[in-house]
């Protein structure tokens, strides 16, 4: 009997060993994910031991000494809520007070839409979470639809709608030759899209190009959207941070509202309040009436429930405290203008430094663009040279984060850009001259 038990146990151990080997092979087919292009730049920068290294790849504000900033209005708000902060769950829709104040920023302090309760608004995990909630909402309630996304756009937009399983199309946006807006091609794409299409639009400070339509162009876009019955979903990650004026930065949204559009909007406080790690934002959808808004909000909450159940409380308390207090809001408006003005000042300094070096290329696009990012027009090969020879780090599409430019490094950056772009620029310059000569002859 004992022998049989030993034999049986041996078989069990062998069987268990086989099961363990089988279980250990479950994930053998999983390959490492490709590195995020932006986070990869930061990793390479941190590993560089050069004293001259410069990081103009990170999408977070830095002061003129290259240091992260916590706004004074945030510090004061933290002191006010300290000791009073509750650790209970927020509702699935988040902080009602934070959402109310956030809607005022996007839609206007005295918006009739807010008074009539026609907006379904929920707190989201910053702008990324707001976009993802909307993408899932679109898939669930308009499963036949696609999303038209500008070329180029923030890379994560593509991931968000892909993972929500919404088919994607693109529309023209950036014009590489002029380094500005390809407005004619954009309008053609809007006109040629099937009626009732969904479009993703950047409300201000387009990422990554820094190229925004003018007010008149926004009016034409809105008019054509109405003619085609398109739905506009605005990602507004930089309100106030682009121009220093939140009202001016919301102008595109206000134009669409004036034309009677029922839009969607993602908002974030990462950039304009420096609350990057707090992940506080808002998703809102304009509806026909209060009844529809209640229904839409309930469905947004249901989508959020299996994702993350409810959003975090601390960042929402900071935002609602700042925006609901006149003195703190005034201080925030002052501080966000200081940040925006520093970025604008660095654009001017970089352009002037390049022009003083005698570059034959035009650098007007540096100051024509707006917001944190400058689409420099440099090729991936030129960006590689900047990294290898000058220890300057940026994404290979030539996008410069102007937040990484300071009075201390702008001259070094300009010299390096001039060095890597001059040869190609000189050839281009000569080619234009020769073409002009033959045209004349």
From TrEMBL:
An example Gene Ontology CC term for this record: mitochondrion
Keyword tags: Aminotransferase, Pyridoxal phosphate, Transferase
SUPFAM superfamilies assigned to the protein according to its UniProt record, in alphabetical order: PLP-dependent transferases
Quaternary structure, from the entry: Homodimer.
Record-stated family: Belongs to the class-I pyridoxal-phosphate-dependent aminotransferase family.
Note: In eukaryotes there are cytoplasmic, mitochondrial and chloroplastic isozymes.
Protein name: Aspartate aminotransferase
Species in which this protein is naturally found: Amborella trichopoda
Top-level taxonomy: Eukaryota, Viridiplantae, Streptophyta, Embryophyta, Tracheophyta
